[in-house]
Input
Amino acid sequence: MTTRRRFTLTQYLIEQRRRFPSASGDFNALVLDVALACKAIARSVAFGELTGVLGNPLMDVATSVNVQGEDQKRLDVISNEYFTQMTEWGGHLAGMASEEMDEPYQIPETLQRGKYLLVFDPLDGSSNIDVNVTVGSIFSILRAPQEAIDSGRDVVEADFLQPGTEQLAAGYALYGPTTMLVLTVGNGVAGFTLDPNLGQFMLTHPNLAVPEDTQEFAINASNSRFWEAPIKRYVDECLAGKTGPRGKDFNMRWIASMVAEAHRILMRGGVFMYPRDTKDVTKPGRLRLLYEANPVGMIIEQAGGRASTGREPMLKVTPDALHQRIGLVFGSKNEVERIERYHAERPVFEDERNPLFVERSLFRD
Ligand code: F6P
Output
């Protein structure tokens, strides 16, 4: 085997910082702290049941007690702790928000507070943990409001409610056959593979680009009866294949781990849909805007793809709550634009498949 000169994540960040000569280095230090949390999570994931950290599907609690009477924490709780513990001490953060915490996380007063906000989903795809399928961590870095930085006050929900266009960086770590970190600092997308011998993320995929066209789509088809008309039309046309209006066959994938689907799409194209549907009217989508849709949206767009709600660009949505859900479509540009066109062409709730909206129904005007 020949050895190849490869850059580490640290070297990549130093190179990127040269674009901003006045940068303090805080940002790079923060990304490296996040990467350290991801390495720790990767180790925990790799040990799996050996360390008793997998979830017990029969127990809806984050902590259980083992036969020795010790606390056993589930992996998603452990992952959340790795993120908070490894990033809070550096002095770079004003505060954090996570899927695992109802409220914003305050940097303890004994520590220095900084200018960035870190938002994360510590373990995405957690329904896959017990079946040993790829899971990952997703994160996004925003700037805290200036007045919060100046005063060093506690962060509040409103500080985080910034559209995805305001993200300074976004990334995910993937705990699969290899551990990878995929990162954008707003200048394209780079992929790093964890070298287990060195414990370092090495730059292996310098310029990730999503192909503009694809013949592969991902959607949870068990929800098809709840889909809105534009999604139903798009999927029907894909399924019709060569003999349908698209004139080509499509392939379908569903890992049920968004971070793994995002990675597949980044590597070879495709389109992912978890759209708004009528399954539960109190939930405008399944995935979370701030720590799932926005970071993945930024990565995909930085790689030349597109991310959308179907109705508008994902990154332009102004969040109204920390844990807001949203319909998400992302991937190869031409397919996402087609789905957006289908949404624009037809009022969404005039769907003849839905009995509530058929001729002579209560809801038809
Ligand atoms: O965070 C939610 C998540 O685990 C995503 O990673 C994944 O795409 C989705 O849920 C799977 O949803 P479903 O259970 O409907 O297939």
